[in-house]
Amino acid sequence: MAFPTPNCSARDFLLSVFSSRSDNERRSDIPSVTLTFAQSLDGKISGKDGKQLLLSCPESMLMTHWMRSMHDAILVGIGTALNDNPQLNTRLIPEGLRPTSLPRPVVLDAHLRLHVDCKLLNNFRQGTGLQPWIFCSSDSLGARERRSALIAAGAVVFEVSCENGLLSIPQVLAELSKQGIKSLMVEGGATVINGFLKYAHKPYCQGDPLGLDTIIITTTAPILVGDDGTGYKVGFSEEQRNDLPHLQHIRTEVMGKDSVAAVRISHCV
Ligand SMILES: NC(=O)C1=CN([C@@H]2O[C@H](COP(=O)(O)OP(=O)(O)OC[C@H]3O[C@@H](n4cnc5c(N)ncnc54)[C@H](OP(=O)(O)O)[C@@H]3O)[C@@H](O)[C@H]2O)C=CC1
Ligand SMILES: Nc1nc(O)c(N)c(N[C@@H]2O[C@H](COP(=O)(O)O)[C@@H](O)[C@H]2O)n1
Questions:
Q1: Total domain count for the chain?
Q2: What region holds the Bacterial bifunctional deaminase-reductase C-terminal domain (predicted)?
Q3: Which atom of ligand 2 is the closest one to the Cα of 36?
């Protein structure tokens, strides 16, 4: 009996998870959202002072790259962009199996702090990555020079309003949809995860773009980071805590030493 290779099982896992999205859950005016991150057994996503950690094992990391290949765009916050200097590409998928289309990198960066020599912009200039899209605040008037420098370095800059000091997630999603993005993978970091989880909460759900079609895929590594690591926290108010979103289990798989779980936020359906 032939057993699937790890590549196939990671890909098959994702295909089965995403095929569980029914057509009537898809909206044409905003992308489908997949929220994903890796955490330690004690719920940390990075080390002391945000130090980037390799939590995922090779098998689950490959799964993450397959997941990237199945989305039109990959979004991170500026905290992650500055701290990790990520590439957000699909380089771990063996050539020959790797889809030719690349995901679009998207950064939430209200004050245009992204470095012009970051890997995302370098990859674009070298022809190995798509042009990064940066969302900034429509109030970031003081950032005119940084905007020009980023555009000269290859970025496309979009403006949206801020809500409570952070960029408006509905406006970001609406603009992405306008630009042809149908599926969005949100990779973190802590503040962005908090923002998207909070936004998916029921009180915001009336006409809420996220609540209808959000899948969360978490990798849990059998590693302890310790109390000085960085965790994510949702930050629900006391009232919201009495009425948390319901998570509907889709599928859990062991990949290498890690456990990968997929759930859907189902309170709206
Ligand atoms: N284990 C894992 O899977 C992952 C771990 N990480 C880790 O996470 C850490 C970074 O997390 P963190 O510092 O919280 O930074 P984030 O990457 O979450 O970026 C947060 C910043 O993004 C900007 N932003 C703009 N709009 C929004 C919005 N609506 N919601 C949230 N953020 C918004 C804000 O900065 P501004 O006001 O300037 O716009 C905000 O401070 C790093 O240590 C990294 O290694 C990151 C990704 C995955
Ligand atoms: N899946 C996963 N496992 C980990 O252990 C991680 N640290 C991360 N981090 C995310 O991946 C980004 C780095 O991407 P590149 O390798 O540079 O393409 C990092 O910024 C986090 O978003 N993910």
A1: 1
A2: 31-229
A3: 1
